[in-house]
């Protein structure tokens, strides 16, 4: 069993934070966007929590790749989904995306090295 480092503990916490963004971040989204934006944060938060939790049990590269995908989507989703005008939500999305992405990028080489140890 290959254990994850501190990066995955922080990503676990960030995943929980990401999941709570819709409830804790003030916004004035139009009614037709609220559900889509909320589900965006809830699903991505759940993915980060699941992948970080899995990495804490047995570190694998897929967990870091999943978080890198989530990070990328978080950074671009304000423009794709259309909540750029809500600066609180947009900043949460971009800052959490950047942080999750950096931490996952730091953990990925370790996960790959553990998967293919040099003999």
For the termini, the CA-CA separation is 17 Å
Can you summarize the main beta sheet? Answer: none
Shape: elongated
Q: Counting H and I runs of at least 4 residues, what is the number of helices?
A: 4
**Radius of gyration (Å):** 15 Å
Helix content: over 70%
Structural category is: mainly alpha
Low-confidence stretches: none
Residue fraction in strands: under 5%
Mean pLDDT across residues:
91
Order of helices and strands: HHHH
Total DSSP E strands: 0
Explain what you see.
- By secondary structure, the chain is mainly α.
- Helices cover 82% and strands 0% of the residues.
- The chain is elongated.
- The mean pLDDT is 91.
What is this structure's SSE topology?
Blueprint: H1 6-24, H2 31-57, H3 61-82, H4 87-115
Question: Could you provide a short overview of the structure?
Answer:
The chain has 119 residues and is mainly α. The chain is built from 4 helices and no strands.
Provide the descriptors you would attach to this structure in a database record:
mainly alpha; elongated
């Amino acid at each position: 069993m290959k254990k994850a480092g501190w990066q995955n503990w922080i990503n676990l916490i960030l995943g929980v934070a990401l999941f709570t963004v819709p409830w804790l971040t003030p916004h004035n989204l139009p009614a037709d966007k609220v559900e889509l934006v909320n589900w965006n944060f809830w699903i991505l938060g759940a993915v980060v929590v699941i992948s970080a939790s899995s990495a804490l049990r047995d570190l694998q590269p897929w967990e870091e790749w999943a978080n890198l995908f989530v990070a990328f989507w978080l950074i671009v989703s304000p423009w794709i989904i259309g909540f750029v005008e809500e600066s609180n939500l947009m900043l949460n999305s971009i800052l959490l995306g950047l942080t999750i992405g950096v931490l996952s990028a730091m953990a990925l080489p370790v996960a790959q090295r553990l998967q293919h140890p040099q003999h």
